[in-house]
Amino acid sequence: MRDAYKIENTIEKLLNGKPTYFLDNSEFKKVISKIKNKNYNIYELYKDQEKVILYTKEEPKVSLFKIASHDKLKHQDILGAILSLNISPSFLGDIIIDNDNYYFYVLSDLDEFLKQNLKMVGRESVTLEKIDLGYLKNYKRKYEEYKIIVTSLRIDNVISKIIGLNRSKIIDKIKNKEVILNYEILTKSSYNLRENDVFSIRRVGKYKFIKIDNITKKNNLVIKYLKYV
Known about the structure:
By secondary structure, this protein is of the alpha+beta class. It folds into three domains: 2-55, no CATH class; 62-131, 2-Layer Sandwich (Alpha-Beta Plaits); 143-228, Structural Genomics Hypothetical 15.5 Kd Protein In mrcA-pckA Intergenic Region, Chain A. It contains six helices and 13 strands. The strands form three sheets. A six-stranded antiparallel sheet has the order 8-13-12-11-9-10, with helices on one face. A five-stranded antiparallel sheet has the order 4-5-3-7-6. Strand 11 and strand 12 form a beta hairpin.
């Protein structure tokens, strides 16, 4: 019900000429499936962005922040630090790590709040600098592509295969809120992955499920996924 309300609220904003919040791939597909005959624009920040904003008349107000830290940061720790401030994932765009530089997009309404409250990422002290929104317009994500054989698309099953831990330990990680799916903490180990789902495992890495590439003679699935470099 919550997801359905969120989609309906998003569509209502769009039809009233207001920009949407940030939408992950699943939300984007649901929204455009319900507004097939309506004109809309995608607010493009850079090519291959994961989270998008749709708009018709009024363009969204988005900010780009650079995080300064004396030590290396991980994507999942940056995400966790921002979400721990009770910020909705809908207000947060992509997080980008490029050659030990750290950036994230956010709706501009949160500028001052973030400057005052985002002081730590993991155990590291950080400072924020708001930079030009077009700074990363030519950025291209870097991935490593893999294929594995799995028995199902259950996320606990896939993660188990990717990182080489048994499913009971993966379920423990999910219970401990160590797995984030499409910018939200994963709560159901039985979730079946969909194309372009993005998930990260704390202290391990970030991944994107691409598709089922083949089916073996024993009806196992050959899947393709990307690991973020």
